[in-house]
RNA sequence: GGGGGCGUGGUGUAGUGGUCUAACAUGUGGCCCUGUCAAGGCCAAGAUCGCGGGUUCAAAUCCCGUCGCUCCCGCCA
């Protein structure tokens, strides 16, 4: 017998059906038992007259909430039933997976345990439609990203996550034992996507894990997260990269809105708006002017940088004056950027780089990269880096590398701002942080 | 790494020097109820108040240490 999804039951009135799902509630009365069964598509009431099958009644009485069940019964229309005006009259029931009692917590209760406890039992928390929706949105989002890339002649790469040497700064790398030597977990696919430019791939993307050994205790940091990276060749400046991002993101938002807009509104109270392009752009110098006019004072040690408060203030300013959730902050000082960002021809103190803020949160960093070997090596030295550990990387630029640029985006951070999630721990399937390595 | 906050039955909270032999909700177990539907009613079990030390006649409550969680900052996506 084929399984019927709960949402399709109205089309099966009068028929015998098989339904599979979880026992959300059991109302066990003297002569009747009512089981509320839940599958991915909805809830249905299953009614059982105890005297009709006393043995089955006993089995049902022993069921713990959230047990996984297969039931067979007849669908009948019944106006009295508040849940959809129909119910299933139970004929057969199979306990596929008994739920122990009591549950660590009831995911469908009005009050929930704090998040750390729920993370211990993440799969129970994920039984809530709201939480599954977040991962469904992620699925749609990634699919839209890929569709857009593929429509624009991109090649997908998967770069190694085990590295023999520190890549960028080396500060926030996890090290691990690798046979007789030490290896590191990649903190970004940066170098390898640039290698694809040297390889002549012209346009590449990668969605993959990224590891950061930063003991950051905030609502927006993880030690392992999914990085969305992209790199394109033959650009004239970082502006070309920004133009690509804004159109790409607008496309992705539109796809998510079509598919999940209603659910997002229902569960998170957020009216998902497809951002208008182009996104506002502020040079770092202009951003400082704006902050000054807002009376936001940056700590003096933040010279050339933005702190999270400044990012939020800018985000609000852009929302108020341009009605856009996004803003590019461009032309950051070389002093606060990595060595491989290209410098402005007319101002060697500034890089051809940008951050993308979404609702005041940093979700993306990008730049035109320096593709000229000698210049790149010199910039690395200016940063006090020794060339030897990065020689493999520098070699990418020795035999004809085109001008190029790209960006890295935090997938969960994007989901966070899409649905106004209070913490990144909700935006990810399983959170990994300095003190969270399980389940 | 720096700073703030919190830690009470399974879970969420109340209690912030004595009336705490720790309360309420929810969950769990039992009984009752002609079909319930956020079901309802009755009963029961369940907490050495994170841990260790101290102050006091008296500590869940104050102090110190410690562990855990959390928020902010640093760092970043």
| Largest sheet entry | 8 strands, mixed
Helix content: 25-40%
Radius of gyration: 27 Å
The count of domains is 2
Give the beta-strand count: 18
Spans of at least 5 consecutive residues whose pLDDT stays below 50 are: none
> How many helices in DSSP terms?
11
Q: Based on the structure, what is the oligomeric state of the protein chains? A: single chain
Q: Which CATH C-level class of the largest domain is it?
A: Alpha Beta
What structural class results from the helix and strand content? alpha+beta
The side-by-side strand order for the widest beta sheet comes to 6-10-11-18-17-16-13-12
> What is the fold-level CATH name, i.e. the topology of the largest domain?
BirA Bifunctional Protein, domain 2
Order of helices and strands: EEEHEEHHHEEEEHEEHEHHEEEEEHHEH
Q: Any guess at the CATH architecture of the largest domain?
A: 2-Layer Sandwich
Overall spatial form: elongated
What is the strand content? Answer: 25-35%
Please give the alpha-carbon distance between the first and last residues. 36 Å
CATH-defined superfamily of the largest domain? Bira Bifunctional Protein, Domain 2
Overall pLDDT level? 93
Q: What do you see in this structure?
A:
- The model has no long low-confidence stretch (mean pLDDT 93).
- The strands form 4 sheets. An 8-stranded mixed β-sheet has the order 6-10-11-18-17-16-13-12, with helices on both faces.
- It has 11 helices and 18 strands.
- The protein has 2 domains: 6-97, Beta Barrel (OB fold (Dihydrolipoamide Acetyltransferase, E2P)), CATH 2.40.50.140; 129-426, BirA Bifunctional Protein, domain 2 (2-Layer Sandwich), CATH 3.30.930.10.
- With 439 residues, it is of the alpha+beta class.
- It is elongated and about 90 Å long.
- The structure holds one RNA strand of 77 nucleotides.
């Amino acid at each position: 017998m084929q399984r019927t999804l709960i949402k399709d039951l109205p089309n099966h009135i009068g028929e015998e059906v098989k339904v599979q799902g979880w026992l959300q509630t059991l109302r066990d009365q003297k002569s009747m038992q009512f089981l509320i069964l839940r599958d991915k598509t909805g809830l249905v009431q299953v009614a059982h007259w105890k005297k009709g099958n006393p043995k089955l009644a006993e089995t049902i009485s022993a069921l713990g909430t959230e047990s996984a069940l297969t039931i067979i019964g007849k669908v009948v229309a019944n106006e009295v039933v508040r849940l959809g005006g129909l119910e299933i009259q139970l004929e057969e029931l199979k306990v596929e997976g008994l739920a122990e009692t009591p549950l660590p917590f009831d995911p469908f209760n009005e009050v929930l345990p704090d998040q750390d406890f729920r993370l211990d039992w993440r799969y129970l928390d994920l039984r809530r439609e709201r939480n599954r929706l977040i991962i469904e949105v992620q699925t749609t989002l990634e699919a839209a990203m890929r569709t857009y890339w593929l429509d624009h002649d991109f090649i997908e790469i998967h770069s190694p996550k085990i590295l023999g040497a520190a890549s960028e700064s080396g500060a926030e790398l996890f090290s691990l034992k690798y046979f007789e030597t030490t290896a590191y977990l990649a903190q970004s696919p940066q170098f390898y996507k640039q290698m694809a430019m040297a390889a002549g791939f012209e346009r590449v993307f990668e969605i993959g894990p990224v590891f950061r050994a930063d003991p950051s205790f905030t609502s927006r940091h993880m030690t392992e997260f999914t990085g969305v990276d992209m790199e394109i060749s033959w650009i004239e400046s970082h502006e070309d990269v920004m133009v690509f991002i804004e159109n790409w993101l607008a496309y992705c938002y539109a796809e998510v809105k079509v598919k999940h807009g209603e659910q997002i509104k229902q569960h998170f109270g957020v009216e998902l708006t497809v951002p208008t392009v182009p996104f506002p752009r502020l040079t770092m110098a202009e951003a400082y002017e704006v902050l000054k006019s807002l009376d936001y004072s940056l700590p003096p040690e933040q010279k050339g940088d933005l702190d999270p408060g400044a990012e939020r203030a800018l985000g609000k300013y852009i929302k108020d004056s341009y009605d856009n959730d996004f803003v590019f902050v461009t032309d950051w000082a070389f002093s606060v950027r990595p060595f491989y960002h290209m410098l402005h021809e007319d101002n060697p103190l500034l890089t051809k780089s940008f951050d993308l803020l979404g609702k005041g949160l940093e979700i993306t960093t990008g730049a035109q990269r320096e593709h000229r070997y000698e210049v790149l090596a010199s910039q690395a030295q200016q940063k006090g880096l020794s060339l030897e550990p990065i020689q493999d990387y520098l070699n990418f630029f020795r035999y004809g590398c085109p001008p190029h640029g790209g960006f890295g985006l935090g997938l969960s951070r994007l989901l966070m701002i899409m649905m106004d999630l209070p913490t990144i721990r909700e935006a990810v399937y399983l959170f990994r942080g300095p003190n969270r390595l399980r389940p």
